[in-house]
Amino acid sequence: MERDKLVIIPTYNELENIRDISLAIMALEGDFELLVIDDNSPDGTALEVKKLQKEFPERIHLIKREGKLGLGTAYLEGFHYALANGYQYIFEMDADFSHNPKDLVRLYETCYQENYDLVIGSRYITGVNVVNWPMGRVLMSFFASKYVQFITGMPIKDATAGFKCYRRNTLETIRLDKIRFIGYAFQIEMKFTTWKLGFRIKEIPIIFTDRTKGNSKMNTHIFKEAVMGVIYMKIRSWFKKY
């Protein structure tokens, strides 16, 4: 069975957001489907998703995992699900409204109509489009992307962005079992691999708004993984066949 659009949202303690974000996606034109991958949230996020499944039985899907296994592994599990079930366009986004659900339509249209293989919702393609972040975090994120550009040579301004649309063939071509990172470095590694494989990539501007409900999952360990991981990834690429 050929299906079209699947939005993947990993969750951990997103009870305050999951219903609203799910309904916002369901309200979009184009019959977007949603896959929530929940890492056994103690706040009952998965139970709320099960309630939503009764309202949208064909369009909302749930994978509940045994524990907190990391952002990257959640997305990889979602990618395998999407490929196994025939979806043509696969999206990544956060549960906390930092990504505007309406921008999913723009990501899709750019990917479909302009024939791109990966479309990135970028905070930095037209300056710095971030709302409600402390200046320290804005600077850290901005210069992290500059650092990634410098080390890797990737022509991508928002290297750590987590709001994306992949064309099916892109994910089929990437050897997902060889993706190594599980934190925010996962986002960099996926873009780097897509770029090295020669796929067509485009960034479109979005406004990123910091969450108003729930707690951020960012921490210093995740940041260090990204910083050191980029160097490891670049060195490994000298010996790796893509």
TrEMBL record:
<dbReference type="GO" id="GO:0016020">
    <property type="term" value="C:membrane"/>
</dbReference>
<dbReference type="GO" id="GO:0009247">
    <property type="term" value="P:glycolipid biosynthetic process"/>
</dbReference>
<comment type="similarity">
    <text>Belongs to the glycosyltransferase 2 family.</text>
</comment>
<keyword id="KW-0328">Glycosyltransferase</keyword>
<dbReference type="InterPro" id="IPR029044">
    <property type="entry name" value="Nucleotide-diphossugar_trans"/>
</dbReference>
<protein>
    <submittedName>
        <fullName>Dolichol-phosphate mannosyltransferase</fullName>
    </submittedName>
</protein>
<dbReference type="InterPro" id="IPR001173">
    <property type="entry name" value="Glyco_trans_2-like"/>
</dbReference>
<dbReference type="GO" id="GO:0004582">
    <property type="term" value="F:dolichyl-phosphate beta-D-mannosyltransferase activity"/>
</dbReference>
<dbReference type="Pfam" id="PF00535">
    <property type="entry name" value="Glycos_transf_2"/>
</dbReference>
<dbReference type="InterPro" id="IPR039528">
    <property type="entry name" value="DPM1-like"/>
</dbReference>
<keyword id="KW-0808">Transferase</keyword>
<feature type="domain" description="Glycosyltransferase 2-like">
    <location>
        <begin position="7"/>
        <end position="174"/>
    </location>
</feature>
